[in-house]
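Slide 14.
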Amino acid sequence: MRIRTDGDYAHRMDTIEAAAERLGVNKTRAILIACDSVGQLLGNAEAALEHPDLPPSVQQDLADKLSTRHIDITVSEPAVSIEIE
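Slide 15: predicted structure.
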């Protein structure tokens, strides 16, 4: 598999390199870790944000902090919505 990083796709290299640096691994390993982890991380975030003891203000604050430029997490009592751009 090849990931295009030329021309209009140059931003992908920055994203991959940032993940590799954050995880302390090479770029290939960073992609594998990200792909392997994303489903479980999103499911865990959703479950944690729907915890009945979590105050709405904390839910919203956490949802804002967990959202990224491609993943939008919103809270609307009692449900949590995770949308991928």
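Speaker note: Residues 34 and 41 are 10 Å apart (CA to CA).
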